[in-house]
From TrEMBL:
InterPro entries given in the database record: His_Pase_superF_clade-1, His_PPase_superfam, PGM_Phosphatase
Protein name: Histidine phosphatase family protein
PANTHER family membership: ADENOSYLCOBALAMIN_ALPHA-RIBAZOLE PHOSPHATASE, BROAD-SPECIFICITY PHOSPHATASE YOR283W-RELATED
UniProt organism field: Holdemania filiformis
Domain of life: Bacteria
Molecular function, one GO term: phosphatase activity
GO terms for cellular component: cytoplasm
């Protein structure tokens, strides 16, 4: 079982100052509220059996993972592919206005490219695939904690969790569901 945990609330008070412009926003630490959220999360009994924490490299997730690691006394490992949604799949950091435009388009399209179109932004299925590839490397290990981002968790579970929220995710069930859907599509295509 994977326990997906959304990072705590970040402190963006230094936005547009120092190094916190554009990509620098990912360097913003947790707020005092975010720290309390994750300390509360650490007390959840579902996490007691975990032996490893996987974390996004972004500061708000990594700081959340560090708090969990300290509270639960288990190691943490950074997995770079657990990063946040990409406004541009080429990993180019866009000006805030353009990134906001991509995000608004992502939301308007419910995270899916319109039929026959490709977009610069990362789709929900692409995020889901990125996450599953990470999880497959850890398949067979029990009760792993994965500290990442709301949109990333949404790509797997269909809803956007709150800060510090724990979402249980079973990779085997997910893979079985995907195989069933793939078989159904193939059967429908054969009937056409």
């Amino acid at each position: 079982m994977f326990y997906l945990i959304r990072h705590g609330t970040a402190d963006y008070t230094e936005k547009d100052t120092k190094i916190y412009q554009g990509f620098g926003n990912h360097l913003a630490p947790l707020s005092a509220k975010g720290i309390r959220e994750i300390e509360t999360t650490a007390a959840d009994p579902r996490l007691a059996q975990a032996r490893l924490i996987l974390s996004s490299p972004y500061t708000r997730a990594l700081q959340s993972a560090a708090i969990l690691s300290r509270c639960l006394q288990i190691p943490l490992q950074v997995e770079t592919d657990l990063h946040e949604w990409l406004a541009d799949q080429t990993y180019v950091y866009l000006p805030d206005e353009q990134a906001a435009q991509h995000y608004n388009e992502f939301q308007a399209c419910n995270g899916l490219y319109p039929p026959g179109e490709e977009k610069a932004w990362e789709s929900l299925p692409a995020m889901r695939l990125r996450m599953i590839r990470v999880f497959q490397r850890y398949q067979g290990q029990d009760d792993l904690l994965v500290v990442c981002h709301g949109l990333v968790i949404q790509s797997l579970c269909g809803f956007h969790p709150g800060n510090g929220e724990i979402v249980e995710f079973d990779l085997d069930s997910c893979m079985n569901d995907q195989n069933t859907k793939r078989k159904q599509r193939t059967k429908q295509n054969e009937q056409i």
